[in-house]
Amino acid sequence: MEARPFTPMVQKLRTAGLRPTRQRMSLAKLLFDAGDRHVTAEQLHHEATAARVRVSLATVYNTLHQFTTAGLLREVVVQPGRSYFDTNTTDHHHFFIEANGHLEDIPGDSVAWARLPEPPKGTRIERVEVIVRVTRD
Amino acid sequence: MEARPFTPMVQKLRTAGLRPTRQRMSLAKLLFDAGDRHVTAEQLHHEATAARVRVSLATVYNTLHQFTTAGLLREVVVQPGRSYFDTNTTDHHHFFIEANGHLEDIPGDSVAWARLPEPPKGTRIERVEVIVRVTRD
DNA sequence: GCTCTATTTAGAGTTTTTCTAATCTGTTGA
DNA sequence: TCAACAGATTAGAAAAACTCTAAATAGAGC
Ligand SMILES: [Mn+2]
Ligand SMILES: [Mn+2]
Ligand SMILES: [Zn+2]
Ligand SMILES: [Zn+2]
Q1: Is A67 contained in some domain?
Q2: Which of B128, B131, B135 lies closest to A124 in CB terms?
Q3: Is the pLDDT of residue B72 over 90?
């Protein structure tokens, strides 16, 4: 049985110019092996600790930002003083349940515009983000 | 010439159950006498200082939150670790120019949906927020 | 004016995130 | 195989934004 030295995640990291270290591989596993997720740095750090992965909070922050820059994650800001990192990097939007701070994906094609304004002079649209704030009734 | 003891702003504050103190009146003047604005607490505190209005940063935060609760302001979150307070409380959206952290209003009727998803079971839509992120080209 | 309560404030505290600089580790290639 | 080097990790300090506490101050009603 031959060894398989290049798993897909190792490839992804190398492509992004990031060494596949123990810490980055463990965090990638936690992030990407469980479907679409929205996590904060602290949450991920707790998960790592619970999974007996020793990694510092500084490394969790570094890794989340490096993954975001590499396009493996997307940062979502909906609450003052708290960043979520989204493993779904496709074009999509969010429900935000203010009561418990949960984000839920809205597929990109579930939203369609009948009218959108022109961007200000000298600028171009980077991304249109829709946040649907909902409350429990 | 008769005195005019009840200016509209005094009325607004009283209606909100807030005493029209020197600090609140001064901040209200800075906020509402200059058209639609998007300010952070620190910005407003600097403006007050520049205008020789002595007010603590704690009071600026208290006042911004009280005004928001009273419906005189709206809080806008587009950047990690920083809240904007918006003097435009009508139904509208925002351009966000990431380069310099500026917000620009999009009138509510400049955006129209052809399709919007149903909210998750057991919730109802509170508000739909559109943030159009733009870059200088 | 007196009294009562709301408000303000300085300064300490909290929370989230970033920085620093020392140590460690993955990679390369001799 | 291993030395050398650059990249990565880390603990702990620091920064940034915001909140809290408790003492002082000031509107409001009488
Ligand atoms: Mn967090
Ligand atoms: Mn600020
Ligand atoms: Zn998402
Ligand atoms: Zn606005």
Answers
A1: yes
A2: B135
A3: yes
Residues of chain A with C-beta less than 8 angstroms from the C-beta of B104: 120
The tens digit of pLDDT for each residue in A60-72 reads: 999 999 999 999 9
d(CA B24, CA B53): 11
Residue A137: which pLDDT band, with cuts at 50, 70 and 90? confident
Tokens of B3: 């005195």
Domain that holds residue A65: 7-85
Residue B62 contacts by C-beta under 8 Å, 6 or more apart in sequence?
Answer: none
CATH code, domain carrying A25 = 1.10.10.10
| Nearest Cβ partner for B112 among A79, A113, A124 | A113
CA angle B122/B127/B133 to nearest 5° reads: 125
Question: CA–C1' span, A47 to D3, in Å?
Answer: 37
Global confidence as pTM: 0.91
Determine, yes or no, domain membership for A1.
no
